[in-house]
Amino acid sequence: MSVLVYTESENGKFKKSAFEVASYATEVAKQLGTTATAVSFNTSENEVLGDYGISKVLHIADDSLKTFNAKGYAQALAQAVKQEGATTVIVSSSADTKFMAPLLAASLNAGYVPNVVAAPEATSPFTVKRTAFSNKGFAHTQIHTDHKVIGVSNNAFGIVENKTTLTIEDFSVATDDTTFTTKSVDIDKVIGKATIADADIVVSAGRGLKGPENWGMVEELADVLGAATACSKPVSDLGWRPHGEHVGQTGKPVASNLYIAIGISGAIQHLAGVSSSKTKVVINTDPEAPFFKAADYGIVGDAFDVVPELIEKLKEF
Ligand code: FAD
Fold it and tell me: What pTM value is reported for the model?
């Protein structure tokens, strides 16, 4: 009875969240007195999972599962759960897994808790701490079903090194065309840029920047810091930036180590999606902007003066 963990990858490379969920699964396995087994899809990097306490990898090399497919991946994981006799499944809280995990949980009759931010508080009954009320509070949630699916928030538990001897097994799954109600056949992606979900640092800007022609300095700051770029909802609604960059309650959640908000007022719906970030820096001309109340560091100033100066200073390092 091992703990099973789904390790996300893209184009054959593990995402950063894979190492965090692997670390989390290792902790859960320790608490339950068992070992952690990872399931990976179409990657040649499996050995690295041994650095995070994983003792076995079930590797699925299947062309029909080359791109993420919620139904197909849920079925594959359910088959792995059955083979391993696992009762606890650990996943990330990414948008993809939030789509897939409920399907997996339903097929296992499992209780599913996403947005978990700490190691289990107890294993009997199984109790986890998760964010609640749009990140304004925490809930301590018990799961009473035999099977459990736990979704771990990005950057909440952290990556913990724990070198372990690892075995890798090929795992074949039974999928056919009826498995897929929808299927992504191709994904267009900006290569070489950090994604909001995986980035350690996110540089985000709002309507205070006046227009899309002023995003050059936001991108330059992001480049200097190796950060992802993001924006507030009105900015993407106005077509200044792509919708994929919109963060907040109705956009992508951000749980980065550093979130820099430029010309963003800090409306409750924006804060709901970014409050899990560890350190928040706000640049705003209005000292009364609500974002300052949620900020760790604040600069009252004009973005058009502050950001270029910040870029120059950072380039000196
Ligand atoms: P504004 O509110 O216009 O703020 C601009 C800020 O820039 C101001 O604080 C101003 O002082 C500052 N500024 C102006 N000039 C400068 C300058 N030169 N230098 C520095 N600062 C400057 N919003 C989201 O972001 N994400 C969501 O997910 C989201 N979901 C929503 C869901 C619902 C149901 C609703 C009703 C709203 C939602 N909103 C969301 C919208 C939200 O309420 C705010 O309207 C929005 O976040 C404001 O965006 P903003 O801060 O970019 O713009």
Answer: 0.80
